[in-house]
Amino acid sequence: MENTRTKEWSKRKEEEPETSTNKRCCSPPFENSSVDELAQQIQSKLDSLNNYQHVKPDYCIFRIPGKFSDEYLAPYRPRYTVIGPLVYYYYLSGHQEEEKQRYLASFLRRAKPNTSLNDFIELIEKYLPKIRGCYEKMYYRYWDDSVGRARQDKRAGTLSHSSLLIGMILVDAGFILELLLRAYSEGLRAENDLIFAKSGTIHDLKRDLMLLENQLPFFLLKKMYKRALKCNPHYPSFLHLTCHFFSHYYNQSISIDEVLSPNNPHSSEYRSNLEDPKHFTDLIRTFQQPYSTIHKQQQCGKWNILRGNTHFMNLISFQKLEVREEFDENNGELKIPPLKVDDSTESFYGNLMVWEQCYYPNDTFICDYIFLIGYLIKSAEDVSILVRKRILINQLGSPIEILNAYNAVPHHSWIAILKLEYFSNPWRGVATIAAIILLVLTMIQTICALFSL
After folding, report:
1. Tell me: the pLDDT tens digits for 303-323?
2. pLDDT tens for residues 149-181?
3. Three-state SS across the chain?
């Protein structure tokens, strides 16, 4: 049989013209290999597969939907630095990559003498299958000598490029951990720190580190931090460190220190949600969720959207709830959580909305809230009313500027996202329209009730 197959290949080669393509594509496989050599090659491949630790994927770091064109992607892409292996980048800033390496070196010095560079490499290697399972796609970063710049434009296969991936993840993770430490205390910063020399840079970095495409798994950062500094009393816990860094996104009436305090038994459930998010985007979404045990203690200006499957459409069900953001049957008011509008609003809510739709399709309370706000804003006069009622916290300027910012493009990216969520099929579209009609009818009923008093 083997001789017959070889003759067939030889006959085919004689009949076809001799081109480089035919030489490459039409040569018989393993033509010059003996049976033993072929068996050895196949067995080596099988052994490598057996030695590879297979982990069921748990995709939690996603690309922005491909339906968005490049002009709509700016709110979802980093301004200062690229983190993680998810996105294809033809070139990266060499200066920023060098800055990340300097931060990694500083973090490694903090970890000594208890933890070495080898320890971190072994830790990442141990969890590499789980890390891979967090990403739909992975591109590895490398240095291009021809142009003297870093690139991130080659796909990392399941069993290939492990060393490049480990090195890339190590640099990014070390940079993040050192950045969080320096942001926590001025005493932990190096002299002439370029990142903290300009306030705008740290602002851009905080924005970059909440972007959905620009993430490392939270569990990995947590393990690396504990491995390095767990036994050092001079450093805060990783939970305190991350919550401090993203504290400007925290949106509750109770202080974050009170939530994190182990002496507060009422905050244990909320605290557990903060301890094990998928990544920083997930952590910040948790910051927006209600502190479940203090509904009746909420202050003005704070979120209180019910969790689970209860969204804003259910807030008009005439329940007797005594907090600001729910329907007040006594005076006929539907109170809405406030929305701060500034130059980062689109990026902030856009990333949280995509994350909700990808991972929490049955718990999209932020999408529901933005959908309601978008429905209410049809003119500059609508904006003025919402500003007067402190529903919109205007940090852009005039109401016209808010309306212009919202309608800057024909099909706003928020609307594009909402269409994917609410009008992806006819049944969802019908349900959404019915819900809007219900809201309008309820408002009309409320107005009529007021006039009848």
Report:
1. 333 333 344 444 433 333 333
2. 899 999 987 666 789 999 999 999 999 999 999
3. CHHHHHHHHHHHHHHCCCCHHHHHHCCCCCCCCCHHHHHHHHHHHHHHHHHCCCCCCCCCECCCCCCCCHHHCHHHCCCCCCCCCCCCEEEECHHHHHHHHHHHHHHHHHHCCCCCHHHHHHHHHHCHHHHHCCECCCEEEEEECCCCEEEEEEECCCCCCHHHHHHHHHHHHHHHHHHHHHHHCHHHCCCCCHHHHCHHHHHHHHHHCCCCCCCCCHHHHHHHHHHHHCCCCCCCCHHHHHHHHCHHHCCCCCCHHHHHCCCCHHHHHHHHHHHCCCCHHHHHHHHHCCCHHHHHHCCCCCCCCCCCCCCHHHHHCCCCCCCCCCEECCCCEECCCCEEECCCHHHHHHHHHHHHHHHCCCCCHHHHHHHHHHHHCCCHHHHHHHHHCCCEEECCCCHHHHHHHHCCCCCCHHHHHHHHHHCCCHHHHHHHHHHHHHHHHHHHHHHHHHHCC
